[in-house]
Specification:
Blueprint (H helix, E strand, L loop, with lengths): L1 H30 L2 E7 L2 E6 L8 E5 L7 E7 L5 E5 L1 H4 L4 E5 L19 E4 L11 E5 L2 E5 L4 E2 L4 E3 L3 E8 L5 H5 L9 H35 L20 H15 L6 H19 L14 E2 L11 E6 L6 E12 L2 E3 L5 H21 L9 H8 L32 H13 L4 E4 L6 E4 L3 H13 L1 E6 L3 E6 L8 E11 L7 E7 L5 E7 L1 H6 L9 H13 L3 E10 L1 H15 L6 H12 L4 E12 L3 H10 L3 E5 L4 H7 L5 E5 L4 H17 L7 E5 L1 H7 L5 H8 L4 E4 L4 H15 L2 E6 L5 H6 L2 E5 L6 H4 L3 E3 L4 H41 L10 H11 L1 H10 L5 H6 L1 H11 L4 H17 L5 H6 L1
Parallel strand pairs: 14-26, 14-30, 26-29, 27-28, 28-29, 30-31, 31-32
Antiparallel strand pairs: 1-2, 1-3, 3-12, 4-10, 4-12, 5-6, 5-11, 7-8, 8-9, 13-32, 15-16, 15-25, 17-18, 19-20, 20-21, 21-22, 22-23, 23-24, 24-25
Helix pairs in contact: 1-6, 4-5, 4-23, 6-23, 6-25, 9-10, 13-14, 15-23, 17-19, 23-25, 23-27, 23-28
Length: 912
């Protein structure tokens, strides 16, 4: 008994050790990366990340990750700025600007650190990525520190040749490590159900062992003295008629060992082997291989294979998961006139749905004849007709309109306003141009994908941003009247940065004639509130266009400007410099207040509309998953209008916007009543809820009412949600419904929801690898989720379920046969089988065939799985019955025991 048990446990230990060793190797690869550290006398040399200490001076070069949390001392730029990419921290691909203190700007080469000393006093290690409190004592002066001087570990230096920094936090004290959570241990529901059956079998083992021990005790006491051939007078303890209780107890131990085959000790390790092999098939599936990025599917854990076939609710991120996170400039409104003839993906989907509805109505009323709206006709309707001006597609620019392209904008009535619109696009940003040697053009490293799309649009319209210095930007402007472009320089006087609170950014520039301008872009609600009386000429029509763009699923911004007088500007600039150089915790508030004074009395120019297109195959994938009965929740940071269009295929939209908590309760009650009164059985409802409302809905006294409403809706979209709210919603659905949840995302802001769900799926997108590293399964495109669930989920679930049934059947048949034989052998403790056979029974003779079944058997082909997901749903519901495994196991066991048991015990079986 010890040998097979040791073998099984040894295999499990070896598997765990192998997985731990892989993680250890990955950790060591990171820890042994080299950083350039000051070793004294102005000399910098390599040092492993794991040996960095607080107070070390580190030099980080372009496109390198920061090994620890650093205080920025200086950079390759004269004003001490640097650009940082934080996708591994917050999932955002936009670049962030960091600025060193002015007092340390002179420390800009290796030798300047020869005699450098200072003292940093700061907060204790904590998990807040966006705050920092501290002081730098340098040259007998104390300077306050804030987050704009802090470079966090795992962020990357971009568009900056190098920076120097002082180590503040290392290892587990760094903010990214403080934000890390212990990866939860996840077990599938099949395994948990299997545990219960094991408990039942263990109780059965104890019971029949007690029956055997009682029977043996009675035989020892009353019958054994008449068995002269046993010679009971010469046998002590085990066969002592005078002490039957001792004999019964010792036989109970014997019976536990003899009937121990009731417990399938090899089941767990056999399932582990099967799951590992199933995971290999998932990894090698060429249908889930993304050729564009060269990324295959990856089962990062094999414990949850069968759980894929039981998913009830999918909670998905939007940007980068359902969409590509690559913005395309699609439409614009300039001087109250709409430009752009192409339709967005949302508009195309709505048109197709409308055409389908019309087609169905016509078909129902006139089955043999009538108007038929075909896909070809639909595409003809929604495709641009400007064939003359069509050109190869440009990444980031899907705009089509002959009125603006190829210099034709100069013929428009408001050509001067259009030119100003283009200039705002080309100047109002913080991007860095990078020249392409082969083509002579430029690529742009921008703070956001939207900003990059604006620069590409400006270039296509004739104004190409080509150069940035410390204080100026240069734009090559092409006009129809001149053959060569004219390079114009604009002096950047001030940059009023974008923040989530301000929801806008501005630049103050001076052109070659000395005229001062403020160019501003931001959320339409913010810009419209700051328009002057004379600047609202296009407000009404632009508002209508913005509404249309939002309904088309586009991301919008408003553009405005203001001419400045020198006297006014210089007076304001003095206040701005004072706020910028102020010392204290209210520095940001002062900057915001001073910036607000300048960003007023604006003149509206127009608005932009960019599209974040859905990933390839996403609509078809969602349709198949819906056919299989899965519910899909979308948790997005987009605004309400865009979120509404995600649920455009639903018939009714329930939109929740917060005012006060009591109003939310009333909205939930009314919506629930509306659904109950709906008579159309095919009516579908979409629930849209924003961040503020969701914060009320997640409170303890309201969350169950909110969940009860949400689960009866066809679509649930939560917009403007924070990473924490994503995790809380996932927990609510998982615990409230008691069904299997799957969370899928591609950014660091999705990690909480991925870890909280029963199954976490990470997408290897453009937002780093944080989501993938926290996931249970990784895929390159959302569309692969269809095959992962409908094909592999179905196969793995049915294989594991049948495998468990076979294991229990064979072990119960084997164990109970021994018990029946014992009943005919006076419970003597003798085995009916050869010892070698019993030794190999659990490990080799019966495990290998069942393992082969669990790995290779396919009840249906993948094509059938994908064609009829609704039939798989019915099968899945059958297997999900809690009593299914036990009932089938016991029924098959009794039938087969009776039919195939050893002929010696047939009389006993017939008696039963």
């Amino acid at each position: 008994m010890i040998a097979p048990l040791a073998f099984v446990i040894g295999l499990s230990m070896a598997k765990e050790a192998m997985e731990d060793s892989r993680r250890f190797i990955q950790d060591m690869k990171v820890n042994m990366r080299k950083a350039r550290v000051h070793k004294g006398d102005g000399v910098f040399g390599p040092k492993p990340w794991m040996k960095l200490r607080v107070g070390d001076v580190v030099k980080v070069e372009k496109d390198k990750f920061f090994p620890v949390d650093l205080l920025l001392v200086s950079s390759s730029y004269e004003d001490g700025i640097c650009y940082v990419e934080t996708m591994n921290l917050d999932g955002e691909t936009n670049l962030k600007v960091k600025r060193a203190l002015e007092v340390t700007l002179s420390l800009d080469d290796d030798m300047s650190f020869k005699d450098f000393t200072g003292k940093i006093s700061c907060e204790d290690p904590n998990s807040n990525l966006y705050t920092f409190v501290g002081n730098l004592e340098y040259d007998r002066q104390i300077y306050p520190l804030d987050p704009s001087q802090i470079l966090l570990r795992d962020s990357k230096l971009k568009n900056t040749a190098y920076i120097y920094g002082v180590v503040i936090f290392t290892g587990h004290d760094s903010k990214v490590m403080q934000n890390g959570t212990q990866s939860p241990s996840k077990r599938s529901r099949v395994e948990k159900q299997m545990d219960k059956i094991i408990y039942i079998l263990f109780c059965l083992l104890v019971l029949i062992s007690l029956i055997s021990s009682v029977g043996f005790g009675l035989n020892t006491r009353f019958q054994m003295p008449q068995w002269w051939y046993v010679q009971p007078n010469k046998i002590a303890d085990l066969h002592d008629p005078s002490n039957p209780f001792s004999s019964a107890f010792l036989h109970w131990i014997t019976a536990l060992i003899l009937y121990g085959y009731l417990i399938p000790i090899s089941l767990y390790v056999s399932i582990e082997v099967v799951k590992v092999l199933q995971a290999m098939f998932i990894n090698k599936d060429t249908h889930m291989y993304d050729e564009e990025s060269g990324t295959p599917a990856q089962a990062r854990t094999s414990n949850l294979n069968e759980e894929l076939g039981q998913v009830d609710t999918i909670l998905s991120d939007k940007t980068g998961t359902l969409t590509c996170n690559q913005m395309d400039f699609l439409k614009c409104s300039i001087a109250g006139k709409a430009y752009g003839t192409r339709f967005s993906e949302v508009e195309l989907a709505a048109a197709r749905q409308m055409a389908l509805n019309v087609d169905n109505q016509v078909f129902e009323s006139t089955p043999k004849s009538g108007v038929h709206v075909s896909e070809i006709e639909l595409e003809t309707v929604v495709t641009c007709k400007d064939k003359k001006y069509q050109k190869p597609p440009i990444n980031g620019f899907s705009f089509e309109d002959s009125r603006l392209m190829h210099g034709n904008w100069s013929k428009e009535p408001n050509a001067d306003v259009i030119l100003l619109f283009f200039r705002i696009l080309a100047i109002c940003h913080t991007a860095i141009p990078e020249a392409k040697e082969k083509t002579g053009g430029f690529t742009y490293e921008a703070e956001s994908p939207d900003e990059g799309a604006f620069l590409i649009a400006a270039r296509e319209f004739g104004l190409e941003f080509c150069k940035r210095t410390q204080s100026s930007v240069f734009v090559r402007e092409r006009y129809p009247s001149s053959k060569k472009p004219i390079e114009r320089g604009y002096k950047i006087l001030n940059v009023l940065d974008f923040t989530s609170k301000r929801k806008r950014m501005s630049v103050i520039v001076q052109d070659k004639d000395g005229q001062l301008f403020l160019f501003c872009k931001g959320a339409d609600s913010i810009i419209f509130d700051r328009l002057s009386k004379n600047g609202r000429m296009y407000e009404e029509t632009t508002t209508k266009h913005l509404k249309d763009y939002g309904e088309g699923g586009l991301r919008t911004l408003a553009l405005a400007y203001r001419k400045l007088e020198e006297v006014e500007y210089f007076a304001w600039n003095n206040e701005f410099i004072k706020a910028k150089t102020s010392i204290g915790g209210d520095r940001e508030a002062m900057l915001g207040k001073v910036s607000d004074l300048m960003e007023r009395d604006l003149i509206l120019v127009g608005a932009t509309a960019v599209e974040d297109k859905p990933q390839k195959g996403v609509p078809q994938c969602i349709d198949k998953l819906a056919q299989a009965g899965l519910k899909i929740w979308v948790l997005t940071g987009d605004k309400l209008e865009t979120a509404i269009n995600i649920g455009i295929l639903s018939t009714f939209i329930l939109k929740f916007v917060a005012t006060v908590k009591d109003n939310i309760v009333m909205q939930i009650t009314n919506a629930s009543q509306m659904i109950k009164l709906e008579k159309d059985p095919h009516a579908a409802f979409a629930l849209i809820i924003d961040e503020k409302t969701l914060s009320y809905a997640l409170e303890d006294d309201l969350k169950h009412e909110f969940l009860n409403l949400a689960v009866v809706c066809a679509s649930v979209i939560c917009c403007r949600v924070s990473p924490k709210q994503k995790a809380l919603v996932t927990r609510l659905v998982k615990q409230g419904t008691g069904k299997v949840t799957l969370a899928i995302g591609d950014g660091a802001n999705d990690v909480g929801m991925i870890q909280e769900a029963d199954i976490g799926v990470g997408i290897s997108g453009v937002e780093g690898m944080q989501a993938v590293m926290a996931s249970d399964f990784a895929i390159a495109q959302f569309r692969f989720l269809e095959r992962l669930l409908v094909v592999h989920g179905h196969w793995c679930y049915k294989k594991i379920a049948q495998m468990i049934c076979y294991f229990f059947y064979k072990n119960i048949a084997f164990g109970l046969t021994l018990f029946y034989f014992e009943a005919l052998a006076s419970f003597s403790g003798q085995s009916i089988y050869d010892d070698l056979y019993m030794l190999l029974f659990n490990v080799i003779l019966t495990s290998l065939p069942v393992i082969s079944l669990g790995v290779f058997k396919q009840d249906v082909s993948s094509e059938i799985c994908l064609q009829a997901p609704d039939n798989l749903l019915k099968f899945s519901e059958l297997l999900k019955s809690r009593a299914h495994h036990v009932e089938e196991c016991w029924t098959i066991t009794w039938i087969h025991i009776y039919k195939f048991a050893n002929p010696i015990v047939q009389p006993a079986l017939q008696g039963l």
